[in-house]
Write a structure and sequence with these properties.
This protein is α+β, with helices and mostly antiparallel strands. It has helices spanning 4-13, 16-34, 78-84, 124-127, 134-141, 158-194, 196-211, 214-225, 229-239, 241-255, 259-266, 271-279, 284-308, 319-326, 336-363; strands at residues 60-69, 90-101, 104-109, 120-123, 142-147. A 5-stranded antiparallel sheet has the order 4-3-2-1-5.
Length: 372
């Protein structure tokens, strides 16, 4: 005989769209965790700038010349590189061509597709004192790099910044949902279980927060806490707990008079044990549905805040700030600069929404936002 969890999983698997959303979210999570290890630009914040190659189309390749070494750069371990990136130990410039002649390397710096810069000569020994042949110079100081999704207005690799933006969106969504669930479950359970003045006071607070536009509330909280990455967690979390609280309040009111709760009271169990051990486990499904929906809402709020300049601060890449930097290029020949992060936001939010719908159907939640 199948257990309730197995029945829920079987029903959830039948929703192909919800399964696709879960797989997409799983892939995003893996990419976000791998982070710098799978990015073409592995420097911190993917912030390597080459203004000469700004707003180049996807798929463009360029030659680069390493002009000098940066002293004192420590090679980080695998785990540190995955989390924080590896600072570059060299400086480089894009070039349109090079040739070796005598004891010098002649390079032509890249200044545009329609213009040609004058050749510049660099002595071998100045460029690479330890090199003994031209092959060693080419191998050590000239490399080719392809920008698969093009470059932004500062000449940074767009693919790398999109991948790093996954971390911002998912981490904000996760932390905001945890905060909203903690506050919402706590206040909703208190209001539903105790009723009376406690319920009236908490319901009044919920109605006040509910009546405020979410984005304006988050902006107000951000003004109070200041701009920054960690402040966004708190601001978004404090603006999304009402959905959870309303749901939990209604579910607790419906469950607190059922037989197993009455039996727990008859056995002398305390109120906190009854709430935590007997009531809340029975409403985990509806709470999970609302949490999935709030995850999508949190990502949208973070995107809006970053677009307005209150979210993740430069040079930290955020999908919202990337749209802000490039939305003017939509009517120009580089619309992909704003469309790609916008598409990432749309697909991620859609994946969480279809996941929430699949969970709702699997748990058979009739009205996840209802209040009794």
């Amino acid at each position: 005989m199948s257990s309730p969890s197995q029945k829920i999983w079987k029903k959830f698997r039948q929703n192909k769209l919800a399964m696709a959303g879960m797989v997409f979210i799983g892939l995003l999570t893996l990419m976000g965790l791998a982070g710098y290890l799978i990015m073409p630009d592995q420097t911190p914040m993917a912030n390597t700038m080459h203004l000469q190659i700004s707003t180049k189309k996807p798929g463009r390749s360029f030659l680069f010349l390493k002009t000098s070494r940066v002293n004192g750069v420590e090679r980080l371990g695998l785990f540190e590189r995955m989390l924080f990136g590896q600072p570059a130990d060299y400086k480089s410039i894009p070039i349109s061509g090079y040739r070796l002649s005598g004891d010098s390397v002649y390079v032509r710096p890249y200044i545009g597709d329609e213009e040609r810069a004058e050749e510049q000569s660099i002595a071998w020994k100045h460029l690479c004192p330890n090199c003994n042949s031209t092959d060693e110079i080419v191998a050590a100081h000239i490399y080719k790099r392809t920008f698969y999704l093009g470059t932004d207005i500062y000449g940074r690799d767009l693919l790398s910044r999109l991948i790093l933006g996954i971390r911002v969106s998912l981490s904000v969504g996760l932390m905001a949902v945890l905060i909203s669930v903690f506050i919402g479950v706590g206040l909703g359970a208190l209001a539903g279980y105790w009723g009376g003045r406690v319920d009236a006071s908490i319901s009044w607070l919920m109605n006040v927060i509910w009546s405020l536009p979410s984005l304006l509330l988050v902006i107000a909280i951000s003004f109070a806490l200041g701009k920054g990455f960690w402040q966004i967690f708190i601001a978004v979390g404090l603006s999304t707990w009402v959905d959870v609280a309303r749901l939990v309040r209604g579910q607790v009111i419906a469950l607190k008079e059922v037989e197993f709760v009455e039996a727990a009271r008859a056995l002398g169990f305390g109120h906190s044990r009854i709430i935590v051990r007997h009531i809340l486990p029975n409403i985990a499904g509806p709470v999970l549905v609302v949490a999935s929906s709030n995850f999508a809402a949190a990502i949208l709020l973070e995107t809006g805040l970053s677009f307005l300049g209150f979210g993740a601060q430069p040079p930290m890449p955020s999908w919202g700030s990337m749209i802000k930097e490039h939305y003017g290029y939509i009517i120009m020949d580089a619309a992909y600069l704003a469309i790609l992060p916008g598409l990432a936001i749309m697909l991620t939010v859609y994946a969480f929404n279809v996941l929430a719908i699949g969970l709702r159907d699997a748990f058979d939640v009739k009205a996840p936002g209802a209040s009794v």
